[in-house]
Amino acid sequence: MMSVVGAQPFIKPMQPSPSVSPGIQRRHTLPASEFRPLNTQDAISVFEIEREAFISVSGECPLHLDEVRHFLTLCPELSMGWFEEGRLVAFIIGSLWDQDRLTTDALTLHKPCGSTVHIHVLAVHRTFRQQGKGPILMWRYLQYLRCLPNVRRAVLMCEDFLIPFYRKSGFKVLGRCAITVANLTFTEMWYPISGHAYMRRNSEAIRFPQHPLTLPLTKTGEHLDV
């Protein structure tokens, strides 16, 4: 994926840490909720969540372990992981594509000059489903894409039963996808990326992915997770 530095939306500037008396040692604690790009060290955790989420439903994983490592090496900035107390609970992996519609090559290739983000997979850990995490993560990811200057749209392919889920996130149907996997067929959907992510008043842009991000949880009315 392209090497870019974007602004992460909806993050307040980090405040200086209060001074601590020399005789007091602060105990390190993990952030309650953290969104950050994935790396190859996360690959096994990613694949375990993906395998459990997809094998039982469709019998196929969107990405095998070597493909997860492949995209997290080429374009980690187009991935996003949601961690709670250091544990991966949900993730998205994407790459760049340079054609109007997806073809079989889009399953394995990253086109650095492309302006379309191909979302390969969104998955939520089984113990964290039905909590609205899928829609929240997708919303944050799409807001992040708005901060990447060369990205114009996001596309994905899904089975028909997932069309209502992605429509609620703002995706529109493009038509039947040319890609088939075994006996599975898919619908191709797209989301326009334009303008800039909304920034709260008195907030500042924070570079992503150079800095891990600690974000407040967002309430949502959605209850459908993948």
UniProtKB/TrEMBL annotation:
Listed InterPro entries: Acyl_CoA_acyltransferase, GNAT_dom, SNAT-like
Q: What class of enzyme is it?
A: transferase
Q: What is its EC number?
A: 2.3.1.87
The record lists the catalysed reaction(s) as: a 2-arylethylamine + acetyl-CoA = an N-acetyl-2-arylethylamine + CoA + H(+)
Subcellular location as annotated: Cytoplasm
Q: Which UniProt keywords apply?
A: Acyltransferase, Biological rhythms, Cytoplasm, Melatonin biosynthesis, Phosphoprotein, Transferase
> Where does the signal peptide begin and end?
none
Q: GO cellular component annotations, sorted alphabetically?
A: cytoplasm
Q: Does the keyword Nucleus apply?
A: no
* One of the GO BP terms on file: circadian rhythm
**Pfam families, A to Z:** Acetyltransf_1
MF-aspect GO terms: aralkylamine N-acetyltransferase activity
The record's Gene3D superfamilies line, in alphabetical order, gives: 3.40.630.30
Which pathway does this chain act in? Aromatic compound metabolism; melatonin biosynthesis; melatonin from serotonin: step 1/2
N-acetyltransferase domain span: 33-204
Q: PANTHER family, alphabetically?
A: ARYLALKYLAMINE N-ACETYLTRANSFERASE, SEROTONIN N-ACETYLTRANSFERASE
Q: Which family does it belong to?
A: Belongs to the acetyltransferase family. AANAT subfamily.
- Please state what the protein is called: Serotonin N-acetyltransferase
Q: Which organism is it from?
A: Dicentrarchus labrax (European seabass)
